[in-house]
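just leaving the lab so this will be short. below you get a single protein, a line of residues and a line of whole numbers that encode the local backbone shape. id like you to explain what the token line says about the fold, in plain words if possible. thanks a lot i owe you, the record is right below:

…
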Amino acid sequence: MLHFNQLNLEKTGDKTGGKNKVGGFYRNTETGEEYFIKQPDDKAELLTELLAGLILQEFVKRGLVDKLHASSLICADVVQMPDGSYALIQPKVDFELLYKIINTGYRDGSDRDPRIEATNGPAYYMSLLNTSNTFGLSTTLMLSMLLGDYSVHSGNMVRMTKNIDGQVCYQYGKIDWGAAFRNYGKKENTDLIIYGYESIGAFNLKGITKAYFLNYRYIPGLFETMAERARQLNARLPQELLIDIIHTALNEIPADLLKTKKPGQPVSNDSPDIDSPLQQELPDSGEQKTLATLAKDTSISSFNALRLGDEESTRELAQEMAAIMGGRLNKMETLKTPEDTYKDKARKLFLTAPDNSMHTSIYFPQRPDPSVWEEPFPILVKEFIKWTYKDEFGQINISAIVNQLNSYIDFWAQQGELFNLWGNQESNQNIFTPYAPEIETEALRGHAYLPQYREATLLRRMAYSYLHIDEAHPLGVFITHRIALYEGAIERYVQTHPDSYWVLCQNAITEAQAIVNNLHVLQKIQSSPDAPSLNEEHLKEFKDAISKFLHHNKKLEESFQQLVPQKTDSERYSSEFFYPFKEDELKALSDDQLATICLEELNARKVSSLLTRIVSNDELYLKVQAALSKDVFTKRVDSPAGKTAELAKFYLFINTYKQFSVAETYIQKQEERLRMAEQLKKLDTNLQEEAVLLLQEADDRLLALHQLEIDFEQALEAFQSNISLSTLELLKSHYEMLPSDVKKSKEQSLEMAEKSLEQLQLETAYLLSLEKYEQNSTTEHFELLKTHYEKLKDPQQIKHQSSYQNASEKNETQVRIADCQSKLSEFEKDNTMANLNALELAFKALPAEHKPQFEADYTKALRFMNFKKLYDEIRGDEVSVQRFLNLSEPLLKRYASMDNTKKGTYQKEYEKLLEKEKQYRILVAEKVVSETTPVKEINPVLKKVFSNPDLAGDQVELQLFRQELLSDQRLWNAVKSSSTPLKPEIAADLVSLKQFHDERVLKNHKNKYGEEYTASLDRFYEQTLKTRLSDQPIKEQAEAMKKAAKKEFQPRHSTRRFIADLAMVLTTLFGGVFVGLGRKAAGKTYFFSSAEVKTTREQDFDSMLNKEQKKTEEESSETLFKKPFSGG
């Protein structure tokens, strides 16, 4: 980005053409306005062009140049570049360079061709008159001459299209003022102001190549108009004003413009900054050298003492320059069109002064060998009118005359070519082809018929004379290279177009050739010793030919003035001899036609690309080779053998170029290029220029390939400084463009770059995963981090080892924490020893600092499992009563140590265990069960009683039953072995039987009734318990009890009285269902002793019996006995 007058400028394109390659085109980023920037290598030129521009701007500011003409002065201001150096800047203007208008450029249109202007300049510049409604040319040229800028050639002059008051006009202007003030102080530079000091001198080549003002001398009145402009300016420009203008311009130049150091940097380590007055006062060595050069180049001594930015030194220079400029302005007031030389006079015989509506261009033929006979042909002819038979015709140089005639032919051919005076409407065929009855593709006398032959070429071929020397003509003879196959077509055209430009030229040339022929005859007559002396009769044909020539020449000149010219692109045709060939037309040509083209092209000063197209095509060249071996071509007199040999060398060169093009490696291309260079040296001069183009193209391609390598290296550097996918893709794209051998040499670099990017990507992925892990710290993120770390190569792993190790340790801790949490959750879901062991391992694996987090939960789990271990064992069926009792105490302690949640969970079970403990202890104490008895034998009995909801009441008999069960082994065993569901009435009866037994046994204190007494009671008790716990109907149970009593209590036995007791009990129970009960009612006995019927035990048993005896078997839910009692 550049900054100029507070504008921001960005570059949009490079400069083309000219000699200053630095700079280019820039655009204002805000307004879109465009500017052109250039930076001359020569600082002296930088200053002179800048000074010229600033002076012209002052002229405009002060009204000395009106606004309309101001835009003709496209001059420069100064701008500072980013590196601190200075360059010239000027607004970009839409214009057309003059060389593109008057056809003085190279064929490719890249720039002007100085050779054209040096040889034929005025002829081309005269075509400016072809455009009407123009202005600005005289003003621009006058100011350029005033500033001593003689570089007014077609590459610096431009034409702009304007719309003024609705009318389209064309304004001339100048774009480059870098040649201003050269030799400005030399007196000759002002005295010969049109030529300038640089172009003065008879043997000065620059007089031909640099006297650019002379190119405008055939534009009528131009120099006189410039003189008038100078007078007008001089009248308004007193000396003091001129000094002030120049002084102002000098002071606008940056003070450090010529310094070698960059602005803002000291000249040496000890010197002050650039802004220091002392620094500005002392020019550095580079500045002094430039000022010395300026003083020498301009011949203005004040430049030696100039210090930019210093008022005194700039005024001194302004005064000296103003004096010179004022003198030039005075001199310019007398400007006139330069006087004609004898050559100019001769040339003007062909012309009349053109008016503004028609432009007649002038063509300057190449100058023949020096001789006294250098006058143009018409001038010579007029001179011969005065000759008599007494004059010495032998002194005439016929060769010079022929050359002048050829120049005369060439001139008219060129005029016809430049402005299409032939009237040709076809795109690439001449005017004679329609009159050829049939196109003859075979050659005749060395030429085949080609419709693309240009008319100017045919005119030269039909009329040019060449000096031919061979064995038959050792002194030489003039011949023509007429194209025989065209003679018929030309004859038919002439018959139908008698007033055409071709016919006018043909008539004049025919008579001119007659003059030359007659001169030759006259010379022979005078030189022959046997011939008679010349007389007037001998001169008659000569004089007649002169008269006819002058007549036809005059007619040609007069007609030429009346012909309407047409602008053509003749100067842009590739070939000097042919209209353009399309590719299909070229391929359709016969062998002879192609050979004709090749031999014709070899006549050119420099061959065209048409020859290259043919020779480059193997198929076409084979045709040419076949044709050139024919007699019809080998007998030509224009050295066909030599041309064929040159063509073969050119073909070899082209083939080498092809090999260069297809070579795959850079080395192969270099080798082919060297061969091309060697082959180029062997080519004739006219072939070398076309070959040089191909060689330059090869060089450009080699340079391009080399540049590709440089681009690759630069891309590699860019990649190494910024390793990314985009820079790698750019590197790959440059790699793919490399030649195979260079590509191979760069393969390792590319692979390393790819690996570097891969490692960078892996490293980037690792760092991103590390960042994510640090943000989220999950196992999943660590696994991803681990994957990326393992993909790193050793150097990167070492580089990131610390961060990975930290992350790994952190993850390990997190994994252990998560594992502990998981194991805790699993344990809480399923309280198993395996889960506790897993939890214990997970807890112990925790780092010390994280154990407190889980210690409470772990302790709870441990305590619970300690409890549960005993709990599970104590609840097992295989445990014995003793083991149960041994475990109960620690179990109860462990229960107490558990947390309330777990206590709540096991509270009911805990209470049951407490209950069981009590029951077990009673059972063992009462020897109902032994200590070794498995609880699985006890628990079903306990469950049958204590878990039976029917027996859970608080009735006295139920409470007694539960108590007696735990202390009475016979009752325990009876209940244990019974499958009958226990009901409250059964429990009550069992208690009654228990009490009946215990009370009777108690009376046998100290065995006063004997052992059998107690034994019978025991047996009866066991039997009745079993009976009551059976599933027999109640009546049957009562009957069974009676039988048991009868069996156990014998009449003579001390227990016989129990029968009566039992009878009383049963009678009370069953309501007299037994037979004996009836007898009791009649006062008789049944099986009880009458003596004991009314004993106390009988009364007791009677009271036990249920008095509601009328019970059905279905009503067995009632007790057999009354509720238990107490008594003696």
In short: The chain has a mean pLDDT of 81.
